[in-house]
Amino acid sequence: MHRNSSSIDHFSLEWIWYNEQEEVSEEQALQKTLQDPFHFVVIEGQKVASFIGKVLQNGQSKPICQLSCGTLSVFHLPAEKLLLCVSEELDPNLFGQITQRMSRWLDVAENVSTVSLQPAVLYKGLTEHEQEKVCFIKALATGRSVLGDIGLIEAPNVITGVAAGVASYRKFGGKKEAAVYGCYLDSVILDSVSSEPILRLLKALGIPCADRYELKFKTSSNLYL
User: Fold this and answer.
1) Range of the domain at 160
2) Which pLDDT tens digit goes with each residue over 33-44?
3) Which one, 47, 147, 180, 185, has least CB within 10 Å?
């Protein structure tokens, strides 16, 4: 891995690039994507990195860089004209700093979307139908239209984390507002059932994903893989 020393500033976070020998060619490919309209997507939540690693391009895609905090990585999908940021950061003190670190992409992206995986118990005002679901999706009412028949996030519920930072950055920066989605789960451990609506959403956002996610369980040690 290669640390981009030019990125170090008072935020004390820096981008660490993978495959130092390929950094120049990857940076050139990235710059080409940035010159055309592209989609910047942020996905965040507990254990989301493992899930994305398995379903993104059927597990064949690798991140191009990560932040030095170790909880956020970026995938570049040039064919789809897409940058995908995956975050498991939980420290509220870093949300603003991380958003600033992504500002060079947020400033020029044609479209920005965020997807937050949250425990369903945190959502206030669940309907009986939603209480029976292992996963349901809501969206913030923003300047961009939401997908399909996804309902709106209603007060007093809010979106937090990196997603909130990204949405605020776009809104107050005078850019086209981000599309913000909350995926509310009965368990932070995704399985083939709870992941189905999430995969549908990701595909609708133009992210090349597997049709199905299978959680492997190792019976001999009672560990999820």
Assistant:
1) 24-205
2) 888 899 999 999
3) 47
Specify the amino acid at residue 151: G
Has residue 213 been placed in a domain? no
Q: What CATH number should be reported for the domain holding residue 127?
A: 3.40.50.10900
Number of domains in the chain: 1
Q: What is the pLDDT of residues 162-194, one digit of tens each?
A: 999 999 999 998 888 899 999 999 998 899 999
Tell me the one-letter amino acid at 72: L
Long-range contacts: 198-203, Cβ < 8 Å, 24+?
198/115, 198/117, 198/135, 198/137, 199/55, 201/115, 201/137, 201/147, 201/150, 202/43, 202/55, 202/115
In a domain, 171, yes or no: yes
Q: What is the pLDDT of residue 35?
A: 85
Domain contains 216 = no
**Across residues 128-149, what is the average pLDDT?**
80
Q: Do the domain assignments include residue 192?
A: yes
Q: 0.90 exceeded by the pTM?
A: no
